[in-house]
Amino acid sequence: MTLDLHDHAPSKNFNDNALSAADRAFRLLITGPSPLSVDGHAIGHGAPQRRIDLGELKALLLSPQAGDEFKDAAWAHLVWQARSDGPAWVIGCVGVAMPGLKNLAARTTHGCPAHAADDVVSEMVTEFVAQLGRIDLDRPNILPRLLMWARKGALRARARELAAVETCDQIPQPTARPAEPFLVLAEAVRRRVITCDEARLINATRLEGQSLQAYAERSEVPADRLYKRRRAAEGRLARAIQEGQISVTYDGAGSNHQG
Predict the structure, then answer these.
(1) Which candidate, 202, 197, 236, 203, places its Cα nearest to that of 219?
(2) What DSSP designation does 52 have?
(3) 0.70 exceeded by pTM
(4) For 148-169, how does the pLDDT look when each residue is reduced to its tens digit (9 = 90+)?
């Protein structure tokens, strides 16, 4: 699949996700009297023979005149800096790759609800950053290969989100006016269908619209584990509603079933 490295993304709002946070951090790193920069001598292949701040390097890499050898030399240098000199250079790599990442985010989140889109973008950025430490710098097409891994991460998260939505879609529509979703969760906890922790997870990431990635960071639990935990809990919840163990009707009084 061909990856577009330029910024042709539609005006989709990414103001509150991992990608926009990285973009803001990158802009801070390339402004001021001492912007993050690379040595053009070390890159070679037609790079200006002086210090090049990463904002200028980004523009040079997007130029139609940029050759493949220059691109790979620049990206090999950037990744090496990220491996040896820490977080600022990791953000620098994400920032220089931002046009390609934005296009990838727009494609992989198309049709996703807001909370799911945030999770997809978070995993896309997480996978991109993880591959900075693993990518083979001796092979060509370093950035396209990084973006391909990022795409795999995004699609993996999207698949989990769609699976969870399909599970929820199995819940029958109530004939009466539905109860508040929180009351349904509370009843499910009381019936021991789900745990308190699972109810909090579903409430935060489904009802309040919090990013699952952000919830994982706050709770110090890996996001993959929370995806599986939420999917399992929502599956039990769907079955319990189908079987009449939990009421979803207006009064919120819960099921009259005993036991």
Answers:
(1) 197
(2) E
(3) no
(4) 999 999 988 888 776 655 444 4
